[in-house]
């Protein structure tokens, strides 16, 4: 059924796992994810960014997600607006039937971030919709990718996190903890601020945290991309052991997009290289979809949410 994330997060928090929140942009990506979820019996969060909405039109994506919900009656499915920017966008998505809304005011001054989050909460809550907010700054979402040194300077502050949650009334909080969006998260050895995750977790007992930028940049796909004409030699993600460690802590939602993109791209490149005469989209999108399915199945075990639907 279509649900908000309240119950999902309660279970995840209590039992020390996290739920995968996967970004979708088209039918094949969505189908690959959902096949994995159905096979592994895991709860599901599908999310749509503003970019996704511009690319595929929200109406199309929403129609695809409606089919997902209808065809998987035993799976709890939440749909989240990823990185909502304004109150108006958030309102539009609440009105459109999304069950979860992220308002990303992380670039705003602290008090303004609280104020815009509170405004979204006041609109969403009476309509049964939950709100995710963000504190601290991740790299990669603005055009100029923030370097590692800069990222570590923008780690969420525990005192602010407590105040933010109290004052804004948000249901979950994405905290900058050393990750960034995209395929180039670290220049040297990956590190996450587990001490900060731990402290915020301790100061906000029972409160679900969210980790953005959680893709691992899997070697299998990076290698295929580089082998078949792609150019991502320096790509680096969050090692899976670290994702598992965070999932066992207060992190209850783990956002993954880059790993989906890389799986699809790797397989398409492989088909193009190995079968240059092929021009039927089903013959390359199909293997891409299968690769997403297998990758997501594996991911659900990394997060610990397999079998938890
Ligand atoms: O937050 C970043 C997600 O990977 C979505 O990316 O805005 O390019 O769709 P996008
Ligand atoms: P990745 O780029 O690591 O997949 O992160 C996605 C994300 O945080 C979407 O909000
Ligand atoms: Na967790
Ligand atoms: Zn994000």
From TrEMBL:
Its EC number is 4.1.2.13. It is an enzyme of class 4 (lyase). GO terms for biological process: fructose 1,6-bisphosphate metabolic process; glycolytic process. Dihydroxyacetone phosphate binds at residues 182, 213-215, 255-258. Zn(2+) 1 binds at residues 83, 181, 212. Binds 2 Zn(2+) ions per subunit. One is catalytic and the other provides a structural contribution. It comes from the Bacteria. One of its GO terms (molecular function) is fructose-bisphosphate aldolase activity. The keyword Zinc applies. Pathway: Carbohydrate degradation; glycolysis; D-glyceraldehyde 3-phosphate and glycerone phosphate from D-glucose: step 4/4. Gene3D superfamilies: Aldolase class I. Its cofactor is Zn(2+). Zn(2+) 2 binds at residues 104, 134. It holds the Pfam family F_bP_aldolase. Keywords: Glycolysis, Lyase, Metal-binding, Zinc. The active site is at 82 (proton donor). It catalyses: beta-D-fructose 1,6-bisphosphate = D-glyceraldehyde 3-phosphate + dihydroxyacetone phosphate. Belongs to the class II fructose-bisphosphate aldolase family. Catalyzes the aldol condensation of dihydroxyacetone phosphate (DHAP or glycerone-phosphate) with glyceraldehyde 3-phosphate (G3P) to form fructose 1,6-bisphosphate (FBP) in gluconeogenesis and the reverse reaction in glycolysis. This is fructose-bisphosphate aldolase. It comes from Anaerobaca lacustris. The lineage of its organism: Bacteria, Pseudomonadati, Planctomycetota, Phycisphaerae, Sedimentisphaerales. The gene is fba.
